[in-house]
Specification:
65 residues, alpha+beta, two-stranded antiparallel ribbon, two-stranded parallel sheet, 2 helices, globular
């Protein structure tokens, strides 16, 4: 979710290209989970929300659970 050269989040164009490559559409529902108390899931949630994706959920519990 980060641009390796700018050390920042992906641009909107990069984000849209990545989502297109992995088959994610703007109306797809995304359920996120991860490790370290879901910190990466929360960061990813923020990026998706920032770029207008609204069908997002964070699973209650982290990778260990």
């Amino acid at each position: 979710m980060n641009d390796a050269q700018r050390h920042d989040i992906l641009s909107k164009q990069q984000f849209e290209e990545l989502m297109s490559r992995v088959g994610m559409r703007s109306d797809s529902e995304l359920i996120l989970y991860g490790d370290f108390n879901n910190w990466f899931a929360a960061f990813t949630f923020w990026i998706f929300n920032y770029y207008g994706h609204k069908k997002l959920k964070i699973m209650n519990g982290e990778w260990k659970k």
